[in-house]
Design a protein that fits this description.
With about 350 residues, this protein is of the alpha/beta class. The protein folds into two domains: about 70 residues, Up-down Bundle (Transferase, Pyrimidine Nucleoside Phosphorylase, Chain A, domain 3), CATH 1.20.970; about 260 residues, 3-Layer(aba) Sandwich (Pyrimidine Nucleoside Phosphorylase, Chain A, domain 2), CATH 3.40.1030. The protein has 16 helices and nine strands. The strands form two sheets. A seven-stranded mixed β-sheet has the order 4-3-2-6-7-8-9, sandwiched between helices. Strands 1-5 form a two-stranded parallel sheet. Helix 12 links the parallel strand 6 and strand 7. Helix 5 packs across helix 16 and helix 14 crosses helix 15. It starts with a helix and ends in a 6-residue tail after the last helix.
Length: about 350
């Protein structure tokens, strides 16, 4: 048993009226003890549920990210065309609506940005469809790649994906606790705001509840992250909704985007089988209209504009359409399929 961890657990788990928040240094210590396994299973489970009930502060999350930076992977700075675009999607995936994050990443890389995603396989508590499975469905296998190889691919293709079980097994080992307590602990918030890159980046983080956004903004200030965008996205992802106004916060500036203004509004696309979604994605890549088209154009066009590839949102949507229909996005998939060769295959 870790006596040091027990004292931190007592501090946050003392009840509604007597608990105390951790300092940034204490939160970093607690996370270190979680990652190294110095805390016992009983202590880890108690800490995760107590911290969820208490709700994490921005200072605590900053300390937890400090520990992630110390013990987790950090991609060295690479020769990229601009700041690396890092998307923070929930690792436990989607269960209700069809994700288009992979298509958006391909589109941005085709337009000239460098994009990094990170995630895992099936994760608790939702056990929804993860982005990694969609990449595999398109023939791109990110599992088994070294950190160095991911950095090389970023330079070569403008795309990278860090697969948690390979690149950060200490964090992956905590997934079982999430399943056992039946709730997302504050560790799940780190997935949205983790930026494992030692160079300039633009962090795009999804969220569900408005208080989470406020905490994120405070966290970015504490961590010295000047360039960020928060997105009230579908199921906490970075995917923009079409059936309501999309709410973004770009480094303190509020953006309200309406798909209705661009004839792309409609009901959100329900998530069917993974095989059906992959077929729709392949139709998009081939420039063929499909059920996924409005969501892909709305998200792709919005991000192309937001990240400087088009002077207006309308022109961003048109550029997205042209890139899909011309086959250039499909060419990016072919490039990745050719270059991404995990060591164990």
């Amino acid at each position: 048993m870790s006596h040091e961890f027990r004292e931190l657990l007592k501090k946050i788990g003392s009840g509604t009226h007597t608990h105390k928040d951790l300092t940034r240094a204490e939160a970093a210590t607690a996370t270190r003890l979680l990652l190294t396994g110095e805390a016992t299973p009983a202590q880890i489970g108690a800490f995760l549920i107590a911290h969820r009930i208490k709700r994490p502060t921005a200072e605590e999350l900053a300390g937890m990210l400090d520990a992630y930076e110390e013990y987790g992977p950090l991609l060295p700075k690479r020769d990229l065309p601009g700041p690396l675009i890092i998307f923070g999607h929930p690792y436990d995936g989607r269960s209700r609506t069809a994700p288009v994050g992979v298509l958006v990443a391909l589109l941005l890389a085709t337009a000239g940005s460098a994009v990094l995603l990170h995630g895992s396989g099936l994760c608790p508590t939702k056990y929804g469809l993860p982005l990694e499975a969609l990449w595999r469905g398109l023939g791109v296998e990110w599992r088994g790649l070294s950190l160095e190889r991911v950095g090389q691919l970023l330079e070569q293709t403008g795309l990278g994906f860090l697969y948690l079980p390979d690149c950060f097994p200490q964090a992956q080992a905590l997934m079982d606790y999430r399943d056992q307590i039946g709730k997302r602990p504050p560790l799940a918030t780190l997935e949205l705001v983790w930026a494992p890159y030692d160079g300039p980046f633009h962090l795009i983080a999804g969220y569900v509840h408005p208080p989470t956004e406020a905490t994120m903004v405070q966290l970015f200030a504490l961590r010295g992250i000047p360039t960020f965008t928060t997105v009230k996205g579908l199921e906490g992802s970075c995917d923009l909704p079409r059936d309501r106004t999309a709410i973004l916060n770009h480094a303190g500036k509020r953006l309200l985007l309406k798909a209705h203004d661009y004839a792309l509004a409609g009901s959100e696309i329900p998530l069917g089988s993974p095989e059906d979604l992959i077929r729709q994605m392949q139709h998009m890549l081939a420039g063929q209209p499909c059920e996924l088209t409005p969501a892909a154009l709305w998200n792709g066009g919005s991000y192309l504009w937001h990240l400087g590839h088009a002077p207006s949102l309308e022109e961003g949507i048109q550029l997205a359409r042209e890139l899909f229909c011309s086959g250039r996005v499909m060419d990016k998939v072919r490039q990745l399929t050719h270059l991404v060769q995990p060591s164990y295959l």
